[in-house]
Each structure stands twice: as structure tokens, then as C-alpha cells.
Amino acid sequence: MTSILGIVGHPLGHSLSVPMHMSAIFHLGIDYVYMGFDIMPGTLAHAVDHLKGEHIKGFNVTIPYKEAIVPYLDSVDEHARRIGAVNTVNSEGGRLRGYNTDGTGYLRSLKEQSGFAPSGKQVLLIGAGGAARSVAFSLLEAGTERLIIANRTMEKAVKLAENLASYFPKAGLRPLPVDRISTLPYRDISLIINATSVGMKGAQHAGIDGLLALLGGSMALFNKDTVISDIVYNPVVTPLLKTAQLAGLKIHDGTGMLVYQGAESFRIWTGIEPPVDVMRQAVLRALKEKH
Ligand SMILES: NC(=O)c1ccc[n+]([C@@H]2O[C@H](COP(=O)([O-])OP(=O)(O)OC[C@H]3O[C@@H](n4cnc5c(N)ncnc54)[C@H](OP(=O)(O)O)[C@@H]3O)[C@@H](O)[C@H]2O)c1
What we know:
Bound molecules: NADP nicotinamide-adenine-dinucleotide phosphate
Strand order of the largest sheet: 2-1-3-5-6-4
Strand content: 15-25%
Distance between the termini: 37 Å
Order of helices and strands: EHEHEEHEEHEHEHEEHEHEHH
Helix content: 25-40%
Number of domains: 2
Structural class: alpha/beta
CATH superfamily of the largest domain: NAD(P)-binding Rossmann-like Domain
Number of strands: 12
CATH topology of the largest domain: Rossmann fold
């Protein structure tokens, strides 16, 4: 009987996870299928009961359920428990266990694409939402020495920094209003990450120019080895990455995080080494079709 995988969220639209995982399944010739489960708000508990069905091997969780699903799971691994959010659920004979592969996927792609090792480094993380939170935990778990968290809403940056400090008391954590980032000592910063939705295609907000101007104006001050990373993956080369490229800096795009978080989930569900290149090509093809 075919084993079922999928993604739970709302609205799902054309999720890139479907072609990405299906390409891996076809490539390996295994008896699995990966499908979208668009769960209407208010029906999550009922949906989770159904997702315990015997042929369902596991599923991804996306907006808006990454935090909301936690109380309905039978167990949650330590990394996901600290983050307070789950993006991967594995069904072990109907018992659901939650994981979070967003930050670990991010770090793996950062290493593969730019050779960056976070241990002992100083990092500027822009954003304090769900994705920033996962990335922050993974960076600190990997030994980042100093993490500056810059966000438009300062209270959220403070809250995240306080929460991180309770797990990583030795790390240097500094919350900062995003409009102050141009005052930072850029020579000492090895990695700058945009973990906001600024720069995303079709995003209806006024932040793009402001954030770009703040960072773009400082790029001449950056160390030549500084990596500029954007977790937004549509477009693949965001306005921030374009500016960094023109300034001759190393860039890291958001497709790697998408692919590696998916690859980690795939490994958890199937125990099989995921065909990462096949998954990446599927994501790039699907993104091209969206244009
Ligand atoms: N590559 C991947 O695999 C991957 C995975 C997950 C997410 N993402 C992408 O990451 C982005 C953030 O996702 P999320 O889940 O963290 O969202 P979220 O929880 O809603 O957080 C959004 C973040 O963006 C900031 N922001 C939004 N509009 C802004 C503006 N105009 N100016 C300055 N800051 C602004 C918010 O600041 P405030 O706190 O001030 O509102 C907040 O820090 C999305 O574009 C998503 O597609 C990519």
C-alpha cells in the first residue's frame, strides 16, 4: 500500500514542497505520494486525528500551524521544543512526533553553498518572526558567539533575545531596532541574514527600499568575506542579494534552506538519503513556472 506524505497549512496555494518531494519520490522509485492538506482554520484538531491514519507516514507543517500543532502531537524533539514550533511530523505507528528542520536546513545549505561555519562568529539576523527564530536557535547551537537581532518591531527582537539567552547564557545577544543597523561595526560581522519577508515577490509593504538602503549604504564597509544571506526564495536573487552581488560580496539564496529543510524531513520519514540535487532542480523549475 502506498505510504502518504504531505504538507499541512492554509492557504496552501501552489506549494513548492509538493513538486520537490514528488521529484525525490519519482527519482528513487519508492511507493510514496506527497500531497497538500489545506486545513481550514478551526479544524486543526480534527485534521490531526485523521492524519494518524495507518498509511500516513508523516507531513510538513507550514503557516499558520507551526506553533498551533504542538499541543496535538504525542511528542516533540528537544530542538523543536525549544523553538516552540514544528515543521515536520513523523508518524510512528499513529503516534505523532514533531521536529523542526528549518534552522538545521538553513545551516546545511549555508555550509554547502558558501562554506560558512558559524562557530565563534558574529552574525546580524534581520527579523524576529518564526523563520528568524528557527535560524537563531540553529546558529547558537552551532556556536555563534554574538548574535544581533534587528527587527522593525523592537519588542519582538527583545523577546526573542531574552528567550534565546535563557538557553544560551554565554552567547552575546543584542536586540536592535532595524533602522539602527547602519550604525553597526560591519568589519566584525561575518554573516548578514534577511529573515524578514522584505524582498519577497508580490509582498505589499513599504519595507523593501528602506531595508535595502540601510544595508546597501553600508556594503562598502563590509569585510570581503562577509556572506549576505536571504531566506526569501522568490525571486531566487532578491533585491538585497542583487545589491550584494554588485558589491562583490558572497551571497547565499533562500532556495537552499527550502531544499535542505525538505531533505531533512524526507530523511526522517523514509530513512533514505534524499536526492538533494533532484529536489533543488524541481524547486527551481517550479519557481520558473511561477514567473
Ligand atoms: N527559504 C525557506 O525555506 C524559508 C522558510 C521559512 C520562511 N521563509 C521566508 O521567510 C520570510 C519570513 O517568514 P516568517 O515565517 O518568519 O514570517 P513572520 O513570522 O510573519 O515574520 C515576518 C518578519 O518580517 C518582518 N517584516 C515584515 N514586513 C516588514 C517590513 N515591511 N519591514 C521590515 N520588516 C518587515 C517582521 O517584522 P515585525 O516583527 O516588525 O512585523 C518579522 O520580523 C518569508 O518571506 C518566508 O517566505 C523562507
